[in-house]
Amino acid sequence: MTDVLERIRESYNTVATSYAERVVDGADGEVESFDLLSKLAAGRPILDAGCGPGRTTALLAERAPAADPSPVIGLDLSPGMIEVARRDHPDLDFRVGSMTALEFPDETFGGVVSWWSIIHLPRDVVPAALAEFHRVLAPGGALLIGFHVGTESNHKTSGYGDLPMDVYVHRWLPEQLTDLAVAAGLTPYEDAEIPGDRLVFRK
Q1: Exposed site from 39, 53, 82, 94, fewest CB < 10 Å?
Q2: What is the pLDDT of residues 54-83, one digit of tens each?
Q3: What are phi and psi of 168, to 5 degrees?
């Protein structure tokens, strides 16, 4: 597990600047998904787990109601990504850390977003991340997950300007992730009208 996380960390350290320059377009229905998460978080802090260069963290902060200054914290395994995030969004809170071992007290957050960030974790490690998301969510809090739909896993050896990488990209069926989330103690949020490559759960 340590070796896997180190490969992910080093890969995104390598591509951090190039990634921030190239990945700028949002996913379809992104704003609606973030509005839903902000609503379900009910004025409590939100964690962006796997925040990369901070684009999603900034969008979540922008979606917060003016009367609700609850913080949004961006967390990423890659110090390089966090350096870029702090450079581009100096007013926001970014920290280095792993979603498999979150350094936050229980029930800290009203919302957690994992925006296409669990895709690099080995399949047998994803339950640990979901358990951590459940732990740090306050009762009634919400988890928003974005992911690639499918069943295959691909080895990514370069990207974002043909820079070297060494990560795996794992696709998931929605029902597979739902089963794991339910096992972690979460409940599907049936009223979510969002695209099929994301899921919402409540604690």
Answers
A1: 39
A2: 999 999 998 876 556 679 999 999 999 999
A3: -105, 145
